[in-house]
């Protein structure tokens, strides 16, 4: 095995990025040691747009993960890679239908909710309308997720074991609170979020515990 394949993974991350956050959770749950290279989405117009980082991630977004001698982008794809290459401490159920349910929830969040309130979209929406815009799309997505969870949830999103769906859900709840979405209509989402907030892997991945978290945002 080459030295690059044996070296500790490097996660290019932004403290408040929910996409980076879900990968941090998965890495922590699988107990994979990794280093973080912070990429500010704000500083100097966004470090993700610099030529050096564009070589890492042509989409000029976070996260990117350097692991096993490869560079991977897109958070859900990264999490699937971790699951397939490191099946110990699994984050996908064995049951085929339950696996589909995990992917279903991941896709609703990662494709149908989060991108619509992402920084690059909100910049185009404009300061005056961004809160209303984000609330609309998060509320729309949470209605669907709550319905899905009504048939799939046990202690967590799909049954009683933590899965990749939970890795996606918790950061999105944080985003909902950030944009002052009324979460009272979503009791299952809130229950699962409360269940996971004290878990060591989730706590370590929280934005307030990241090396690039501004002091005023730490708690």
TrEMBL record:
Xref: NCBIfam families: maiA
Source organism per UniProt: Anopheles arabiensis
One GO term describing the cellular component: mitochondrion
Protein name, as recorded: Uncharacterized protein
Annotated family: Belongs to the GST superfamily. Zeta family.
Pathway: Amino-acid degradation; L-phenylalanine degradation; acetoacetate and fumarate from L-phenylalanine: step 5/6
Cofactor field: glutathione
PANTHER family linked to this entry: MALEYLACETOACETATE ISOMERASE
SUPFAM superfamilies membership: GST C-terminal domain-like (SSF47616), Thioredoxin-like (SSF52833)
Molecular function per GO: glutathione transferase activity; maleylacetoacetate isomerase activity
Pfam families assigned to the protein according to its UniProt record, in alphabetical order: GST_C_2, GST_N_2
Recorded catalytic activity of this chain's protein: 4-maleylacetoacetate = 4-fumarylacetoacetate; RX + glutathione = an S-substituted glutathione + a halide anion + H(+)
Subcellular location: Cytoplasm
Domain GST C-terminal: residue ranges: 95-215
Domain of life of the organism encoding this protein: Eukaryota
Biological process per Gene Ontology, one example term: L-phenylalanine catabolic process
GST N-terminal domain mapped to chain residues: 7-90
Lineage: Eukaryota, Metazoa, Ecdysozoa, Arthropoda, Hexapoda
């Amino acid at each position: 095995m080459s030295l690059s394949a044996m070296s500790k993974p490097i996660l290019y991350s932004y403290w408040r990025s929910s996409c980076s956050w879900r990968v941090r959770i998965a890495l922590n749950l699988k107990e994979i040691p990794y280093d973080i290279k912070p990429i500010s989405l704000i500083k100097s117009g966004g470090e993700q747009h610099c030529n050096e980082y564009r070589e890492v991630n042509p989409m000029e977004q976070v996260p990117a993960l350097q692991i096993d001698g490869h560079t991977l982008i897109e958070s859900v794809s990264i999490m699937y890679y971790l699951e397939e290459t490191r099946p110990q401490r699994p984050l996908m159920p064995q049951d085929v239908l339950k696996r589909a349910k995990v992917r279903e929830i991941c896709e609703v969040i990662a494709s149908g909710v989060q991108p619509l309130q992402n920084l690059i979209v909100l910049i185009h929406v404009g300061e005056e309308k961004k809160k209303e815009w984000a609330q609309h799309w998060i509320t729309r997505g949470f209605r669907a997720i709550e319905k899905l969870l009504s048939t799939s949830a046990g202690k967590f999103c799909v049954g009683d074991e933590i899965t990749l769906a939970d890795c996606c859900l918790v950061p999105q709840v944080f985003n909902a609170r950030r944009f002052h979405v009324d979460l009272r209509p979503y009791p299952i989402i809130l229950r699962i979020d409360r269940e996971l907030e004290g878990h060591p892997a989730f706590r370590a991945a929280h934005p307030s515990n990241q090396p690039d978290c501004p002091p005023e945002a730490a708690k």
